[in-house]
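User: Okay, second chain of the day. Same drill as before: sequence in, structure tokens out.
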Amino acid sequence: MTGTTIPTNDGSLGLATPADADTLAAVHAEAFDHPWDAVAIADLLSQAGVFGIAVKGGFILCRVVLDEAEILTLAVRPGARRQGLARQLTRAAGDAARSLGADRLFLEVAEDNMAARGLYADAGYVETGRRRAYYETAQGRTDALILVLNLCGDASHDAPVALS
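Assistant: Same drill. Structure tokens below.
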């Protein structure tokens, strides 16, 4: 996927490039207790199969490998939450992953992140696995739920898949 740098003020979606890493890292730092730095984000965006979609106040990074895709991170600034940005970004990421040949889109979400779990449930994601004590929190560790979204419309992809 090729594109331009992220939008600055009109609210439209744009493709992120490694040149946007500082801006994306600043958003990530506001959104997470353990943020990714600009070097890590630029490195990801430089890798084959990785794409980023951004809108003022948030972004999503994804990776496509063969017929599977994964959401690497989704970050929305606290002041921009509850305005539909995450929904817009996840929908755009699914469309982009499908256009790149992915049949399924995976992600990991903290079990205690009820807002994110609601977003993904509303979008049609289903739980397919669990990673015990995956995320570090102020209260200790919490499990990650592995969720999957069928992108191809084939009912055979709706059932949870075996993880290797």
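The two ends are 28 Å apart (CA to CA).

User: Thanks, on to the next one.
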